Amino acid sequence: HVQLVESGGGLVQIGGSLRLSCAASGFTFSSTAMSWVRQGPGKELECVSSISSDGTNTYYADSVSVRFTISRDNDKNTVYLQTNSLKSVDTALYYCAVFRKSPPCDELASRGQGTQVTVS
């Protein structure tokens, strides 16, 4: 079965950085586009970033473009999200996710348990 395990979250000061990781198993990772989504307190789920299966195409929400970078290592079945210049509004539970369709984040298929990012 699909398993997505996030790590790397934590408490960071405004302007700081974190690198989130997601270890995937139970499916053919190298053939699957991957995404990061987040849910802040009192907010709806937001699509943050997506990356194609071969890593050549990426998508970023306007709210994080320039500051965040998504990448993947198909040999390690891992997708990453480098978050820089963090703001208080970035505080959220960040999930690694698989969606069934493009455009990015269309029809959620599976997501992990999440890793908490708190910026203060």
Model description:
By secondary structure, the protein is mostly beta strands. Helices cover 0% and strands 53% of the residues. It has no helices and eleven strands. It has strands spanning 3-7, 10-12, 18-25, 34-39, 46-51, 58-60, 68-73, 78-83, 92-101, 106-111, 115-119. The model has no long low-confidence stretch (mean pLDDT 96).
Strand-helix topology:
Layout: E1 3-7, E2 10-12, E3 18-25, E4 34-39, E5 46-51, E6 58-60, E7 68-73, E8 78-83, E9 92-101, E10 106-111, E11 115-119
Parallel strand pairs: 2-11
Antiparallel strand pairs: 1-3, 3-8, 4-5, 4-9, 5-6, 7-8, 9-10, 9-11
User: How many H/I helices?
Assistant: 0
Instruction: Compute the separation of the termini in Å.
Output: 37 Å
Radius of gyration over all CA atoms, rounded: 13 Å
- What is the overall shape? globular
Percentage of residues in strands: over 45%
Number of strands: 11
Average pLDDT level: 96
* Major beta-sheet overview: 7 strands, mixed
- Determine the fraction of residues in helical runs and give it as a percent range: under 10%
The low-confidence parts are none
List descriptors.
single chain; 120 residues; mainly beta; 4-stranded antiparallel β-sheet; 0% helix
